[in-house]
Protein 1
Amino acid sequence: MRPIHVGLLGLGTVGGGIFKVLQRNQEEIRRRAGRGIEIRKAAVRDAEKARRLVAGTNVAITQDAYEVVRDPDVEIVVELIGGTDLARELVMAAIDNGKHVVTANKALLALHGNEVFAAAQKRGVMVAFEAAVAGGIPIIKALREGLTANRIEWIAGIINGTSNFILSQMRDRGAGFHEVLAEAQQRGYAEADPTFDIEGIDAAHKLTILAAIGFGIPMQFERAYTEGIAKLTRQDIRYADQLGYRIKLLGIARRTPEGIELRVHPTLIPHRRLIANVEGVMNAVLVKGDAVGSTLYYGAGAGAEPTASAVVADLVDVTRLHTADPESRVPHLAFQPDSLSDVPVLPMEAVRTAYYLRLRVLDRPGVLADITRILADRSISIDAMLQKEPDEGEEQVDIIMLTHVALERNVNDAIARIQELPTNLAPVTRIRLEELGS
């Protein structure tokens, strides 16, 4: 059987990794897929550089991306250009021309996935996107196929390597946020504009995709709560450590009787949890199913060949099912398109979780009683407390509290009330806390 023909939109870091993996493992891939997989055309900005990479092969190089998506010889289009506007146009054009699509573009899917999947369903083609979440970790396949017998209860993931590197370095070295961010940029872990990483937007794109597959809901990125790590201090990381916790930027999706929680924010996790010990640029996703219990998926969340591993795996899957009846294929979001749920995504104020609160107050009698009264009036109970001794000659003291599970709306109200106390000297620091137990 002749090889299936692939067109690449982009031949940069990831595209080059895909080319190398396909070349290196071509015989193994052919044995798995049942036929060869060959790159026939690639659209690039730097044609000269691309030609040097593919020298000695039959890969045609063009600077016109539409030439790839309209080429009748190309059967699968791999989109690697990133962004949402041009990428959306090209993906929709590829689908309209009857091409299967493989993409690593989490922003495209989080924002336009509903439209993309509907078009693919109508045209009878596949859109595969394993590389869009957690790089080389096969979390999409695990959720969409491996855990299909389960009712997914919650998903919690470290799904942005840049933020995890920053938090790991702040904890290990006691360094400040801006110092470590500059180091991450020097090492190539963070972009010149790191906003998407440090503000949690990149993680929210990925969490949107995981929640859609896990719970059978449409993509709803606009309803995800997003909070980044830029305001975290060495002080809070140290206090959390003393209390037996580590702080990670987590994406959390949880099914509740009221609706779906969809949130990204810094989170205290007990240090004994495996996911709390994921360091550096590595990613990890914890999934709780009703039958299987908790399962953990760990690995490289970025990089040329880890991402290429996921893209090529998608190419193998598409190749296997290329001639299959569309009705026999695994649905894009694991659930049949006409069976997606309209269960609501909860606003953040309706979420229930536990909290770490750090207060800077005057060291006077009655201060703690005032604070605990405010919390009690709002049904917020204290699980643990740490009060630091004031420095010599100082009249200010830090009080750190861990609460039991409480309603976010009540915690917001309590914080506002505490900050009105004349004995309160600084804005209250609030970090959410998750036990992530079974």
Protein 2
Amino acid sequence: MDERKLGNSAQIQRVQDVVIEDKRCVLVQNGALELLFNKDNALDIVWARYKGVNISFLSKNGLNDGARDFTGNFEGGFLYTCGMDNVSSCVENKPVHGSLHYKKVDTLYALKKGDVICVCGEVRECALFGKNLLMTRCYEVSKDTLTIHDTLQNLDYKDVDYVLLYHINYGYPFLDEGLRIDIPAIKSEPLTEIAKKREAEKFTITAPIDGGDEDVYYHTLSKGCVRLENPNVGVAVEMTYDTNDFPVTLQWKSMISGDYALGIEPSLTRFDDFKMRTLKAKEQKAYQIKIKFQ
């Protein structure tokens, strides 16, 4: 960055508070990358845009107050973090995909470190006589890379179980016919009978289909690197993460008209072999996912 060419760095780098549909958000722009973080929903990411191209999926529900059931609440967004008490419908009497997304963020701050903008906050999941889990989220945003740093801390004096799944969602126009999906899977398993029938086309993006069903697959990867590329819009996205932390990568593919979406979801567990992890008293664990836009 040549500061001599700038009257104000906000021309190419900015962080500002915004309110959308009564949701408190933080808008970050760094060069060609623009991200909207939601303070009222665990600092999850509402949208991602790169070089003016929308990358993310926003469902027909849009931003909402969370007062309905899951299918009436689910916004999608670029990042919808699932956990820490549930993913999918694995745990009875817990919200589908967990309570975390519905938590407000505390102690929010943003700062610039040279060409990188950091947005950080804390999300707590706790209860009287129950667990006391703290997630510290720190996002690093450069002109072409988003790095998610999440650290879980068990602040209690007894062990606690938790689970996480990072529901990262792609939508039109980045998601379109011709999108190339490179998932280095050494093993793939369909979640449903319908997905099993369409397994040969799991990496194929078609035109929208009126009606129909979603497909979900479990992938075991040879390395934690998933690449999506749309040559028609000139944008590629590469996600990297540690498969020791995330042994399962779920792929959610919905070619349904009006619900046209692709989810790549690093997860700590499968749904059909559901296993929570344990943090010992006062223990902490860090997770990282890097997403590069090209």
Protein 3
Amino acid sequence: MNPIKVGLLGIGTVGSGTFAVLKRNQTEISRRAGRDIVVTMIADRDLDKARTLADDNIQVTDDAFAVVVDPDIDIVVELIGGVTVAKDLILKAIENGKHVVTANKALLASSGTEIFAAAREKGVIVAFEAAVAGGIPIIKALREGLTANRIEWIAGIINGTANFILSEMREKGQSFETVLEQAKLLGYAEADPTFDIEGIDAAHKITIMSAIAFGIPVQFDKVYVEGITQLTGEDIRYAEELGYRIKLLGMTKRTKKGIELRVHPTLIPSQRLIANVEGVMNAVVVKGDAVGATLYYGAGAGAEPTGSSVVADLVDVTRMQTADPMHRVPSLAFQPDLLSSTPVISMDEVETAYYLRLRVIDKPGVLADISRILAQSDISINAMVQKEPTAEDNVDIIMLTHLTIEKRINEAIVDIEKLPVVTGHVVRIRLEELKND
């Protein structure tokens, strides 16, 4: 049987890792796929680097469009990133009847609906396991392994850079700025780390997972995003004292009002397995009605972990390419004409619990005033701790609330900050129990 011919666009970290995994495990991969899978073209602006990978049987070019229109290429692997040229390349590949494998979460989160529709029209496959959580096979789990379940919620630590920073802040008591510089030196953070520390990268990933879990279109414009730049060591320490750890969490949940879709720092009980995921590792918890909560843990980035997912997609596409398109696993798990119009609700309508830290003047009646405001907003207190007064007679009060609606807590915070005894802004961090019930 003739081999499957692959055109590889981009040989950066993931591209090089993909090539290495495919070459090293070629025999095993061929046995699983039923035929050989070989890279026959590589496109990269750095031709010298590309030539160091390629042997005499691989054509090297700096023109990626030459790859996607080549009649001999069966599968195009897009690993150049971005949302402009990459989109044009993928759509051109589809137009030319090529199957596509991509790790481009930003592109799929913003333009996935258009890309999947184009692929359906041409009868080709767009596979994207590597777009979410690196080497963790979470897309396959959601699309296939959990297909018998009505998914209730997904919670994920899906950005290794942010998780490394929060882990180091907790373990070493260092400031955000100090740990961020360490992350850059170690190669865990880019020179411009905005996408990681502001939650945008995690938002791309949770948008894709939400679409697959609930059978809705990808809607990146609807996700609520809050990063970790404002977190302080004292809040991480106070949370720890109360039995919680703070993680940047991607969260999507099915509710009576609609779908919650959000990324933000979150207190998680320290006894939960996901709360103990440290460093650059990723983890995703999926709660299904039949199976309960399942945890997926592993390397969320890196050359060969992500390359592993790319190659897994290559094997899947090789196996499925001769199948009737109507009998393939749909891109978003649900049949395209049966996607739901269930709305993504605004953050104001989200129901969760909260950690509040207030710095107040240490005098009688303060707690009564704060409690009154919370009660007026129908917010009940679950736990409260008052710390020792400072030299300026200020004192930190930490409160954990029961479940409430976000707009109520926002209204209460506005009124609390108006109290003359409250100094500075109220710190508000959301809290998720992530119970398996």
